[in-house]
Write a structure and sequence with these properties.
single chain, alpha/beta, 3-stranded antiparallel sheet, 8 helices, 33% helix, 25% strand, ATP-binding, ATP binding, AAA+_ATPase, transport, ABC_transporter-like_ATP-bd
């Protein structure tokens, strides 16, 4: 389970996140939505130990990320911009990650096959398409067979078949009693994937609940989003 409690992070006089609290339960895909600059990336970076908060806590199974001895066994993550060395082969990229977390080598082949990259395992990362790069990032997140996934724009660059595969995979993953936190700008896809939604705007949580409750009274998740954030689409 993911638990965010009274989390605050400031950059000078600006609060990137301002006393936010929400939880992400197991057995559900929880969507994390907000305009650019709303605080999504800051929240995820603090959760994954890449940045420090000024106040509050961000816990994974009751612990800060930095206290997880072999974190990939607990949480797998895919963050925008966290790419591998371009000259490294896909299989080598995953192998060194596996070794750092004491994950058996055979798991590398398993996750490459699972995301559809078994046939290009020895190709350099720089020679992979954008969609293949996203699949490689997802493979890295799955290496430790974690109970928790934290994914930022996982379908970026994927073709329609790949997007449908990710949607089905994440819902099946959650159905096993695992936890999925999914950040995305694709409203239609989020509406088809998420069970619950957390909406953040200007560093504060504006809504959190089941998808059907968030969209009640609105024509779509997109229209609910604009109403909840005061965003008219100028930054999308």
């Amino acid at each position: 389970m993911i638990e965010i409690a009274n989390l605050t992070k400031r950059y000078g006089a600006r609060a990137a996140v301002d006393d936010i609290s929400f939880s992400v339960p197991p057995g559900r895909v929880t969507g994390f939505l907000g305009p650019n600059g709303a605080g999504k990336s800051t929240t995820l970076r603090i959760l994954l130990g890449l940045d420090r908060s000024d106040a509050g806590t961000a816990l994974i199974d009751g612990k800060p990320y930095r206290r997880l001895r072999y974190p990939l066994h607990t949480v797998g993550a895919l963050l925008d911009g966290a790419g591998p060395v371009p000259e490294r082969r896909a299989i080598d990229h995953l192998t060194w990650i596996a070794q750092s977390n004491r994950i058996p080598r055979q798991r590398v082949s398993e996750v490459l096959d699972a995301v559809g990259l078994g046939g290009v395992a020895k190709r350099q990362v720089k020679k992979l398409s954008l969609g293949m790069g996203q699949r490689l990032g997802l493979a890295a997140a799955l290496l430790g067979n974690p109970e928790i996934l934290v994914l930022d724009e996982p379908v970026n660059g994927l073709d329609p078949d790949g997007i449908r595969w990710v949607r089905t995979f994440l819902r099946d993953y959650a159905a096993q009693g695992r936890t999925v936190l999914l950040s995305s700008h694709l409203m239609t896809e989020m509406a088809d994937t998420a069970h619950e939604v957390v909406v953040i705007a200007r560093g504060r949580i504006t809504a959190h609940g089941p998808l059907d409750e968030i969209t009640a009274g609105h024509a779509s998740l997109e229209s609910a989003f604009f109403a909840l954030t005061g965003d008219q689409g100028s930054r999308w």
